[in-house]
Design goal:
Elements: E1 3-4, H1 13-36, H2 42-70, E2 77-78, H3 85-96, H4 117-126, H5 128-140
Parallel strand pairs: 1-2
Length: 149
Amino acid sequence: MPMTASQLLITNDRQYRITRARIREFEEALAHADEQYRDADPILSRAMHDQIASQLDDLREQVNEYEALRDSEDFEVEVDSLEKLPIALVQARIARGLTERIGREDPCAAAGDPALRGEILCWCVHGAAARDRERARRDRYGYADAGAE
């Protein structure tokens, strides 16, 4: 069954490890929340407990989505608007087991069109500033412009 392009928040293994560490911290905070806020107003105490639990649920959901993508055998995504395309590209990268780093020597080596792949992905996912950095990187490694023959 195809996935839909959702608001993926964990996009790489580093963020995954950090999020897992945050989950452990929130679990510990939740375990001690009742004790920590026992002298507070019961409504405030309950609100703090619920806030921690809600954040913990959000982090777990992000980890579960990342793990499902990373461990998927057959990945297929449905994108119903161009606005959701950047997230779908990141999901596809995770599902294929690719990293954000393409390579130090050749930043566009994994592309079908080496001169444009990195630029397009950077533009879609990170915006104009990243696109400009990718152009500079491409120029540094001697790639010709896409329009040049």
